[in-house]
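May I ask for an example protein's residues together with how it folds?

___
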Amino acid sequence: MLEFGRKEIHALLRQSQDFAREAAAILLAQSSAETGAYAASDALKESLTLQQLTAMPLEKLRPLAMGRVAWSALAAGGVRTVADAYWTSPVRLEAIRGVGEQSAQEINRLARSV
């Protein structure tokens, strides 16, 4: 049977405490790395989504419309892509000649649902 003296026990205790601190530091670093990876992934998804919405003509939403939408008035007012409609508030959409409240609400709803 192994016997340990007081010095050996204290040395083992210090080693185990050092090990516990190192393990905690590793877990903290891992958590920080995971958080950074998730943030980078979210930023990439957002960037790709914005690129897709910018490249998508507003006309792609036409089959999804549940009512009348003043498509030509929107285009004449500079709202030509889904991104344009996404970033334009319904109030600003209504300010476009020929676009009423119903069209503005519908196009905003559609753009945000993509």
Notes: Residues 6-55 form the longest helix (50 residues). The radius of gyration is 29 Å. The chain is about 70% helix and 0% strand. Residues 1-55 form one domain.
